């Protein structure tokens, strides 16, 4: 026995050392928000490594839920959370993603009276990057007495760095318990494109009797399925046989989901299911997409036929559908949102020729989210985040620097053009308590016109990278402890009159040029 224990301890030790918000070998990122006292753990239920959120946000306060909300069957992820009492927008910054790849995002919320006030927030907004994902309305999930919510979205990420932001809309303090990312195969969920994301409204697994919400260990994408079992409404069918894989499967439903199905109690009856439109404040009539999953679980004899018409709101959508043969999987889906109405009702009605009633194994419903808002030009955004981190700038520097306009970072201005992403054009960090040297990242802000770093405690020399900034016309470095010489590139710009440099109270190209006549001559400010 002893050697086995050693192996286990070594394994856990290794995973702790590797703990960070970096993707694991499957590309999974699993963050337990507000986790303290340890950096990571392997979840008993999923065997996945969960890490603390400490490294990916610099605001908010960690909390544990009240002890009375601990439940043995509940995932450990929800025991702690991070709450954001300050600022309109607070974000997590996820790095090391694969630009252009499709990801499943999942955010989990469990209030659990963490603040002792017994007053969950009514609602706040959730964004992926600069695009609205959903309102988190705790009363939508009010039937869950613990005020638990779980939301998923499928989006193509535009860059290798993506932020997930909580926006306070006046409905109480936003908080979050868990944040998970699962990379998807590009061919999966073809309705999700660079312009359109999918907000998962429901994944319903029919006929599974054991639990209400299930994740399957063999699901390569770790999705969440609700189960729906009601023996008074439907007859339930299950199999323990394997349901065959499908080449070029667009949806890859887990095996267990396809191993259960329902069929009408009355062999001549039909199957009905549906959902109500859930308007969002910024989208009163969202468009919906659905995927219906089928697998034949009954070995049919030669003359048997299972054929049915699939209609939505009494309009025929897929007439004469026959599930692929025994233990094969099939699905139907729409590529463009259904006409916008207040409720959506599918019916599966037997055709005249059928000998067997309809079946269905599962369905998924999505509302579309547009992902066409464009954030700050990525190199600018990345430079601004590096600068923020280096100088520990407080202010409201959260989320995207320039977008939306109403949340532009204090002390900087941006330019907005219709056909291209916003650019950072001016920065005034005068008297902001900056320490250390001048970040070379300023040199990556290629559209910068004005830079004021006066009256700080900056030391070292002026980085040569600043001379790369073709649009820069004014730079104020006075009131610091800089030394070294003015880089020759900058000197040249000063001499040809295209740049004003102020150091130590001297402003204007003439003075500076005189002073820097010999580029190698050291100067002090
Ligand atoms: C939450 O509980 C864990 C384990 O008991 C503890 O280590 C951690 O410090 C607590 N977190 C907070 C914010 O109190
Ligand atoms: C939250 O949901 C409830 C119930 O559907 C609704 O009455 C309320 O208006 C919603 N609040 C917001 C802010 O969307
Ligand atoms: C329900 O759970 C039991 C025990 O874990 C298991 O044996 C059974 O196969 C499950 N049934 C279904 C339909 O998942
Ligand atoms: C089954 O459905 C048919 C047609 O809808 C109906 O006439 C019949 O009474 C139903 N049988 C039962 C047992 O409900
Ligand atoms: C399907 O059958 C139900 C009754 O079982 C009926 O009300 C409905 O109109 C039928 N739908 C279509 C599209 O034929
Ligand atoms: C099924 O759909 C076909 C084609 O739309 C239609 O001709 C037929 O009447 C439908 N059958 C039933 C029972 O609704
Ligand atoms: C129903 O069966 C008849 C006779 O075999 C055939 O002509 C017809 O095409 C079938 N209809 C459907 C929808 O399969
Ligand atoms: C940004 O623009 C506003 C309005 O033009 C101006 O008052 C402010 O000084 C500018 N800030 C910077 C950092 O350039
Ligand atoms: C620059 O920032 C300083 C310190 O915050 C402020 O006093 C000054 O008005 C700002 N200047 C501009 C042009 O925005
Ligand atoms: C300025 O920087 C120097 C050297 O790093 C440091 O000793 C000093 O405390 C700093 N002053 C302020 C006000 O931060
Ligand atoms: C410039 O200052 C840094 C520390 O602030 C020091 O290490 C360096 O030697 C100084 N260089 C010159 C040329 O004075
Ligand atoms: C930089 O900011 C300081 C403080 O607000 C101001 O006095 C100075 O004129 C600014 N420099 C330039 C070049 O605008």
TrEMBL record:
Q: Which Gene3D superfamilies match?
A: Ribonuclease Inhibitor (3.80.10.10)
Entry keyword annotation includes Magnesium: no
**Cellular compartments per GO CC:** membrane
- Organism, as annotated: Triticum turgidum subsp. durum (Durum wheat)
Per the annotation, which location comes first and is thus the protein's main one? Answer: membrane
Protein name in UniProt: Malectin-like domain-containing protein
Give me the segments passing through the membrane.
Answer: none
Residues in domain Malectin-like? 31-368
């Amino acid at each position: 026995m002893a050697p086995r224990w050693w192996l286990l301890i070594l394994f856990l030790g290794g995973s702790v050392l590797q703990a960070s918000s970096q993707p694991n070998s499957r590309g999974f990122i699993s963050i337990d928000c507000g986790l303290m006292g340890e950096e990571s753990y392997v979840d008993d239920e999923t065997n996945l490594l969960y890490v603390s959120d400490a490294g990916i946000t610099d605001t908010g306060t960690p909390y544990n839920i009240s002890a009375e909300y601990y439940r043995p069957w509940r995932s450990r992820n929800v025991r702690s959370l991070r709450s954001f009492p300050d600022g309109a927008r607070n974000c997590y910054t996820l790095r090391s993603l694969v630009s252009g790849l499709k990801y499943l995002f999942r955010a989990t919320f469990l209030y659990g009276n963490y603040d002792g006030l017994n007053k969950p927030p009514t609602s706040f907004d959730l964004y992926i990057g600069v695009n609205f994902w959903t309102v988190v309305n705790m009363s939508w999930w009010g039937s869950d007495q613990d005020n638990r919510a779980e939301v998923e979205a499928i989006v193509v990420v535009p860059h290798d760095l993506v932020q997930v932001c909580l926006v306070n809309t006046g409905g109480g303090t936003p908080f979050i318990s868990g944040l998970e990312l699962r990379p998807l195969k590009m061919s999966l969920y073809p309705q999700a494109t660079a312009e359109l994301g999918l907000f998962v409204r429901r994944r319903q697994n029919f006929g599974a009797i054991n639990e209400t919400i299930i994740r399957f260990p063999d699901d390569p994408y770790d999705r969440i399925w609700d189960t729906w079992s009601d023996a008074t409404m439907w007859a339930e069918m299950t199999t323990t046989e394997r349901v065959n894989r499908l080449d070029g499967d667009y949806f890859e439903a887990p095996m267990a989901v396809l191993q259960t199905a329902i069929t009408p109690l009355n062999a001549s009856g039909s199957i009905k299911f549906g959902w109500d439109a859930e308007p969002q404040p910024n989208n009163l009539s969202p468009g919906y997409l659905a995927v219906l999953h089928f697998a034949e679980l009954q070995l049919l004899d030669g003359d048997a036929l299972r054929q049915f018409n699939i209609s939505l709101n009494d309009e025929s959508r897929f007439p004469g559908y026959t599930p692929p043969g025994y233990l094969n999987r099939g699905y139907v889906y729409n590529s463009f949102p259904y006409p916008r109405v207040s409720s959506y009702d599918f019916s599966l009605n037997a055709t005249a020729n059928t000998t067997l009633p309809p079946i269905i194994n599962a369905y998924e419903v999505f509302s579309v989210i547009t992902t066409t808002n464009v954030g700050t030009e990525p190199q600018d955004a990345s430079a601004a985040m590096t600068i923020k981190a280096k100088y520990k700038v407080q202010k409201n520097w959260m989320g995207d620097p320039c977008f939306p306009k109403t949340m532009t970072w204090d002390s900087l201005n941006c330019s907005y053009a219709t056909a291209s992403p916003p650019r950072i054009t001016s920065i005034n960090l005068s008297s902001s308590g900056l320490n250390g040297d001048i970040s070379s990242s300023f040199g990556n802000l290629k559209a910068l016109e004005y830079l004021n770093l006066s009256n700080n405690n900056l030391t070292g020399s002026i980085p040569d990278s600043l001379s790369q900034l073709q649009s820069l016309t004014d730079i104020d470095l006075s009131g610091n402890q800089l030394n070294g010489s003015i880089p020759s590139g900058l000197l040249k710009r000063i001499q040809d009159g295209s740049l004003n440099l102020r150091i130590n109270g001297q402003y204007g190209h003439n003075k500076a040029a005189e002073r820097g006549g010999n580029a190698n001559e050291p100067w002090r400010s």
